[in-house]
Amino acid sequence: MVLVMSLLPTMGFAQESKTDQEASDLLTIIKKLEAEKGVTFFYLDTWLEGIEVADISASDDIRDILTDLLADTELNFFVDREQKRVYLLRNTLVYDQLPEGFFDAEADSLQATPEARQIAQLPPPVFLNDGARQRTRNLGIARIGKASADDLAASYTLTGRALRSDTGEPIPDLALRVRNLGIGTVTDAQGNYQLQLPRGYHVLSATAMGVASMERQVVIYGDGTLDLELEEGIELLDEVVVEADAAANVEEATSGTETIESEASKNIPLVLGERDILQVARNLPGISSAGEGSSGFNVRGGRTDQNLILLDDGVIYNPTHFFGIFQALNPFTTDRLDIYKAAPPVEYGGRLSSIFDIRSTNGNTEKISGEGSIGPVTANLALEVPLKQERSSLIAGARGAYADWILRSLDEESLQNSQASFFDGIVRVHSLVGEDGAIGATGYFSRDAFSITQDSLYQYSNALLSLRWDHKISENTRGTLVAGNSDYRFGIDFDGESNTDFELDYGINQTQLKYFLQRPLGDKHRLTYGVAANFYSVNPGSREAQGANNALPDILIPREQALEGALFIGDTWTPSEKWQWELGLRFPFYTALGEATQREYNEGEPRSDASVSGTTEYGSLEPIRWYGGPEARLAGRYFLDETSSVKFSLHNAYQFIHTLSNNTTISPIDTWKLSDFNIAPQQAYQGSLGYFRNFQDNTYEFSVEGYYKWMVDVLDFKTGSELFLNQNVETEVLQGDGQAYGVEVLLKKNKGKLNGWLGYTYSRSLYRFDGEFEEERINDGEFFPSNFDKPHDFSLIANYRFTRRYSVSMNFVYQTGRPITYPVGTFRLNNTDYVFYSERNAFRIPDFYRLDLGINIEGNHRKNKLAHSFWTISVYNVLGRNNPYSVFFVSEGGEVKALQSSIFAIPVPSITYNFKF
């Protein structure tokens, strides 16, 4: 008796072959075998269409012929005992006998016992559950792999990519779960996923914010690939969230991570109505800035130069406009921002505190579309153009500012005659290559020009070009190539009344190349390994006198160059359902390169012009001094139950590049200094431990995470130092230790009419500079608060949606006032009055708090409209709080007086019109 799978009743007899089939066409070969061997084949024509195979084997045995013929297809075959009939099957097998004990298995599973399977030497048959099938979307059943009598594996590997159906761009952080098995995974940044599934029928569900949820039926016969295409989800209009997928908060092993969607930031009231994911980032626990209107980020007590900011894998040295009030990113071309505050993925490196990974959206591959806004200060526009339907696209964005009136409205008399303008533009091309590859290229440029005084014009610019190629090397191995160049420059044009006019220039250029591979190793490991290199070229500064009879000498500081590289390998190890580990080892190496002259100083003496013992000349590209060492990265996650987990991490890092600044906050004219013979690289060691829990089907997220960071060889300045246009800056700076520790608490509500988050951080950031000599010490060599040490930081962001079209938003921020150095007395020497200052950062300016409110009005949601509109009416600093930006001191009539400077001391209303077509 022959037992055939339930598929057989649906089979029909073969139809007449088409005369125009090629000799290697499978359908033609099957017809030929029927004529030559006198056998009858049973199959469906659709199974054979388009399949090309090798020539027929020379064997006389029909089984040998079909084994060779169907080896590279998903088809199996069954030959009856008389060898007169051949049944072709897709993926599965035909069983002509059952092992003993088969019907003793549990009725609901219909699975043979392991002992019975071994007797039969066959994998168990697969039966489909009609009841489960009715509950899924009508996408058809995906049959994966090919059953084999020689393959008795307990589980098989399912891999693939998740893509948006309209643009073809990958979907990161997509939560994939297998119904009834309690297992799942999350897609990586390129939308890749991997699951280990037992043989048989499963229902795979896919959910993420911004896409429509989907269920897909799969039948697993062996290893295989399944790509998922998901549609945009309209429920995104109801959400104000930070992370793309709420479940990732509990499931991912990496701790200290945040994701901000650009679209989600549109309902958060910010200054002058500008959508700004970088400003939103400052409201998250563990991330702050030195003050309102200041550039840069301080992440977990680190300095502003300890953050690596990437735009589509290219480095941006100053991602802000207008003193940090605006981001230098077009919100309509920006997709999301991923932030790593603890141990980052092993392919990232070069900074101590954080990675800000900004990703641009890919253009629409189906039709021309666009988005724009007009506000009181800026105008933005982005246009998406398909280059090839469903395969490639171009997106271009531009922003401009008409901001002069803002300076005149600030509470500062010296700014009344000032002017400012800025511009940024971006072009990105994205194209799918083959079935499993993609190429993306981004070009970016931004420029600021402002005049704070009537005689000086300041200018700075960013330029970036990056290329990324994701490709499939083999069935289980994917490769990524990243190449790019970044350029940052600033200049000052001084045109005064005296004969001292000059032009001043500075620039840093970085070229990078990185290649890494990702592949599974068995069913519990996923490896990432590769190599990275960066070449730096720095123009430390030049000053060129302008005009005849100029009294100023020209200054040109010799160019600096350096090479930085790294080898890295990491493993995502999942030993059980509860445990997941991220293990990584990175080995960075660095050398400053000639042509250069390096000083040597006497031992036992402070560095100064008087203690120089000699100099060494280095030729072009000659290594000056090598630095480097291993970086270990360890992160773990343990599930306490289905909705909560504990995470912890340990890692260390090297940083070979520093900023030189004696300002309180980062400024556009801060310079970058490469490590060399006399300035060592910075190092940091950090550990973190946190508890994460979700409530009510991921409606609420709660996390509390503590950290401790120790830093070595961080750079600071001597009192009264001259840093710019100084060829020997090592005599003006100090290198010391730092420590930072804190606790971060975050509560978010992701769903419902009321949503948003509440964040609180208690943190300390302390530094110590203790040298052998008095001039190398700060505060007698004791730890003192950094300029950005603000122990208490509280933020509340909320959005309440009355209807689909109307909502109100609020943003409240409270921070401890930052440290400052005060004068504590005066003294007279040689008939001259002098001010005696306290120890560095011994006092604090008043605490900071601010309330912002906004009303959001969307146009009607009719489908057939020329454009969809969105109005934002907001008031920044509703309470009119005169928050101090800085406190400074002047001497008048023999008295020292304290003055306070504020950025926005009054409520600032704005109205912005957004449109999308």
TrEMBL record:
Entry-linked Gene3D superfamilies: Carboxypeptidase-like, regulatory domain, TonB-dependent receptor, beta-barrel domain, TonB-dependent receptor, plug domain
Cell compartments where the protein resides: Cell outer membrane
UniProt domain TonB-dependent receptor plug: residue ranges: 273-351
Alphabetized UniProt keyword annotations: Cell outer membrane, Membrane, Receptor
Coiled-coil spans in chain: none
InterPro entries noted in UniProt: Beta-barrel_TonB_sf, CarboxyPept-like_regulatory, Plug_dom, Plug_dom_sf
Any one annotated GO CC term: cell outer membrane
Identification of the protein by name: Outer membrane receptor proteins, mostly Fe transport
Native species: Robiginitalea myxolifaciens
